[in-house]
Design goal:
The structure is a homodimer. By secondary structure, chain A is of the alpha/beta class. Helix content of chain A is 37%, strand content 27%. In chain A, α8 packs across α9 and α14 packs across α15. The longest helix of chain A is centred in the last third of the chain and has 21 residues, at 306-326.
């Protein structure tokens, strides 16, 4: 490739993200040439859906229905994968990299499941594989972890990285909605999908945490390594009680490295209200990284949507284009490899919030405290909430001091045997930095 | 330099930052070699103060009192300037760059006053000049602005970038302290210097804003372009009244690009309490960048201190070391150059908070409203505060709708002529994103 020849981009997928990226690449062609020192040109777009192809801003002459043609074209220098999902994206990227093309992807599922393999393949083929848009939309987080924070030993990650669930939890908290109503409302507003389980059950957050933890801890984190619990069991009164106790409820993605063990979890958690991450509302995302030198650093912004995602994708394109022009070879990034032990959830130590429905009679609390006590779980606070005169039950909310997860699970099984216990309404972990 | 030869670092200055950087470079030598693919070695340290040299962890054999020796040594690949201040740092860096050495600096005053000149010199000499630590301590912000966010047209910056003043304001707000007491306390705790005017009067924030705005808007911002007002006129009751009105008071660094005009300011401001930046407390910093694609992105962390600063400095060292190993030439970054018009403070449109001491008699508010009205300033709210029976005065707090700064200054001059006005206690601008 000549010194003044253009850098050509092939784009896979004209969905909402792809269309926006195409529009920006077409509009900003002069600005990008200035930034890079050579023309950066969108030269080919693959989209199988003719309706999408026709409604987009991309000239029809650039569009093909045949992705393979784009992937093997000698004219394409950088392939952007904006299809999403595992298949056929995996085949497409594998082909592109094997054809010595640089690749940019926004695909969290793909990077969570096949990131280490694809990165190795890219290194062997001496091409770049960038994926800033796969976590946190336009929030710079992959770049800072790979570069700006590289002097640190990362000790923990605490993140709100799913906008759909954060929107639902914010509505439940602020408006007292129940889960079903908040979900329906999010679906009506376009913030949740018709089949929402990928978000609601925490899979999306798990993918993103796998990507972040793999980078931060220099170890290959697999999706199956991450404990996962969704938000569908939360009730309006959990938010009300949490608020009374001084907490917000957030779906957190957590990674913590301590004593040679890496603990990885996605679950709802009580977060102290004065904590900045408790104030991340609506569809915003926030990622807090704790490093041995830098301390806690928080990155906050819109975690999804065509424009923020486009900011990250085009940023990656410009970085690769500069790399092509500067002629630097690819070394170093991710060179440190460790094989950390993943700690199972049973080994967790946490504080807990429990909401219990019990028989409304004297001595009940003593029985519960006894069962917890035999498991070395000590109670931090108890509040009695609503009493139901009809079925003679009361609701009590218990918070505990730090306890072992395994002990807590055993205690729950034993509580289940008490005739005064009607129901364990919810068990939610409490998370601060400590 | 051979492919396996080491990369050698020369360090200028063994103050608190320099000592910490030296310690980390010495301790992490194996880890850095892994990350970079070649040994990265601290080979020379210049410190003129013998006491500092003796108490540091650096072997005496590495230390020289002669900076010139280090700067001209053919063995040094990367020079770290951690002396601070304008002189002799400017001469030192100029020499280092002219000797084709890469440089890393944490020096905000130097970069604010001479950044564009030094960057040009570095380009001509084909060396890197990195300065992540000059703004926001360890918070990644220079890197994200140069790389991750480069697809955006930046529209505004809103930042808390001076930890000393933020600590003082937080104490005034939370404890009701007056300015003098809060300052003394900050000095006693080591958060403020004995001669604090560099922080208190906003110079430090101006330096950092000049660096950020130069990068974000691709234009050479000079220190003199930035309107500056310090925090010493704030009183305990301003915090109390602001709180009643729903605001926090923060020293903000602001840059806004609109209608081909760049407005640049550092001054105390009322910020809505629900705004995330209002919740940045103590010595923490936060920088909010607004881009046309990404929307608002906020970066939050410890803005000073040896460890966070060291995180940024060593991060820069590792990036340059990788650049040396990869053999890439230096292009692109900062290639876009514009020459934006800087809008003077008189052209600002803002909402205002005014605290006035007036004669405690009927019709006073009417007279004040009239004077404001003749300048097209309309009142948003008025609250009457303390009345002083002895001198028969009252204190009133007025907030305005958006008004022109020039009109507000003229109105203040006219109010001064009213015999019912005893004193303008304070005038503080109100800042939201709008």
């Amino acid at each position: 490739m000549g010194k003044d020849s253009k850098i050509s981009i092939g784009l896979l997928g004209l969905g909402t993200i792809g269309s926006q990226v195409a529009r920006v690449l077409l509009e900003q062609v002069d600005r990008m040439a200035q930034q890079v020192g050579r023309p950066v040109v969108l030269c080919r777009v693959a989209e199988i859906d003719q309706a999408k192809a026709q409604t987009s801003a991309v000239p029809a002459a650039l569009i093909t229905a045949n992705a393979e043609e784009l992937l093997t074209s000698p004219d394409v220098d950088i392939v952007l994968e904006l299809i999403g999902g595992e298949h056929p994206a995996l085949d497409y990227l594998t082909t592109a990299i094997s054809q010595h093309k640089h690749v940019v992807t926004a695909n969290k599922e793909l990077m969570a499941k096949h990131g280490p393999t694809l990165i190795s393949l890219a290194k062997r083929n001496e091409v770049h594989l960038l994926y800033e848009a796969s976590v946190g939309g336009g929030i710079p987080i992959i770049g800072p972890l790979q570069k700006d924070l590289q002097a640190n030993r990362i000790t923990s990650i605490r993140a709100i990285i799913n906008g759909t669930t954060n929107y639902i939890l914010t509505r439940m908290s602020q408006e007292g909605l129940d889960f079903g109503t908040a979900l329906s409302e999010a679906q009506a507003s376009g913030y949740a999908e018709a089949h929402p389980s990928n978000d609601i059950e925490g899979f999306d957050a798990v993918y993103k945490l796998a990507i972040l933890a793999t980078l931060a801890f220099h170890t290959d984190v697999r999706v199956a390594d991450i404990f996962r619990e969704g938000i569908s069991r939360l009730e309006a009164r959990d938010f009300q009680y949490a608020k009374e106790l001084g907490y917000a409820i957030k779906l957190l993605a957590l990674a913590r490295y301590k004593d040679d063990n890496l603990s990885l979890r996605v679950h709802p958690a009580l977060v102290p209200q004065e904590d900045l991450i408790a104030k991340v509302d609506g569809v915003f995302n926030a990622i807090e990284i704790n490093g041995d030198l830098v301390g806690p650093v928080l990155f906050h912004g819109q975690g999804a949507g065509p424009s923020p995602t486009c900011s990250a994708v085009v940023g990656d394109v410009l970085e690769i284009a500069r790399g092509i022009v500067s002629g630097g070879s690819l070394i170093g990034l991710g060179a440190v490899k460790r094989n950390l032990h993943i700690s199972p959830i049973e080994k967790l130590t946490s504080r807990y919030y429990m909401r219990l429905t019990v028989a409304d009679r004297a001595g009940v609390l003593g029985q519960i405290a006894n069962k917890l006590g035999t498991q070395d779980i000590s109670i931090a606070s108890v509040i009695q909430k609503n009493t139901n005169a009809v079925d003679q039950t009361a609701e009590i909310v218990v918070t505990t001091h730090p306890a072992a997860e395994a002990a807590m699970q055993e205690a729950l099984a034993q509580l289940d045997g008490l005739d005064v216990l009607r129901e364990v309404g919810n068990l939610i972990r409490i998370e601060g930095w400590s």
